[in-house]
């Protein structure tokens, strides 16, 4: 079993570095493990009804063409996001008999499926027709089982995994009290990522701290109205940087003191795992997959949408010695569980089982 068709509505390009980068990382890992991977992906992040209709039509036709062209050699399709990617996998299965596995990433279950009764029904059908369902976190797995009546033994909890050769560990350099303490956020600058609470909390910390502090926010600013709401909390100590290649992100993680991810909801929180791998302590919201990722000592959890609580933890990080704030033993347990190489091994087992239930024409 060697040939996989990967279907995804998000995939990065040189112009859109962070758009579904986690899917590409997994494709790269599968290829390195010896899989022949055929992709049918949308790499255009453009929004607006006209753009969405145009790009999704193009992507859908490409996915069907790939499915037809390779119908006799593909062992299994792997769709990322239940809808819309899973719908294309379902159509390929019905047309060409290709079995499929679908990974739910969070937003597809928590938001997309709830937008209308039709989308909920489609999500239900896609999950039911799949050979196997992967949830990136245990809370998400429970939602899929309970809300969509998917049997528990048909669901596996598997994150996208972290490449520890890319996100390599580097010991933190001891700083003096005169040197700035740097907080870092990586992700889309949108309301759901808790960026507003982050800049509010940072200003609370800065006001009461004798030590200089800095906040760096790296990510795409797609919502200009939301960005304008942040302006009152932005000064010379807060810097915004456009998305960067992973090799550059690692450098920022290495030179930052704490990574902060105050999301309102999070299927897993892969970027928090990547931060831990670099030796950077993590503060995050107590939501979704972040609870299981960080809740046993690997990180520090705070209530979501609570700038005051976030500020208290950020201030605590400022004063607690690194060796006490970064729980090496707990982090290593988490990194071993979510190591990309171990993830690929588990995927291979799922692919093999799924392929046995399918047929080729």
Concise description?
The chain has 361 residues and is of the alpha/beta class. The protein is built from 15 helices and twelve strands. The model has no long low-confidence stretch (mean pLDDT 95).
Index terms:
Rossmann fold; 15 helices; 2 domains; 45% helix; alpha/beta; 361 residues; single chain; six-stranded parallel β-sheet; 12 strands
**Tally of extended strands?**
12
Domain module count? 2
Q: How do the strands of the widest beta sheet line up side by side?
A: 2-1-3-4-5-6
Q: What is the percent of helical residues?
A: 40-55%
Q: Report the CATH topology name of the largest domain.
A: Rossmann fold
Order of helix and strand elements from N to C terminus: EHEHEHEHHEHEEHEHEHEHEHEHHHH
Estimated radius of gyration: 21 Å
Please state the average pLDDT score: 95
> Can you tell me the residue ranges where pLDDT is under 50 for at least 5 consecutive residues?
none
What global shape is seen?
globular
| C-alpha termini separation | 16 Å
CATH architecture of the largest domain: 3-Layer(aba) Sandwich
- The H-level CATH homologous superfamily of the largest domain, spelled out, is Glycogen Phosphorylase B
**Which class of the largest domain in CATH terms?**
Alpha Beta
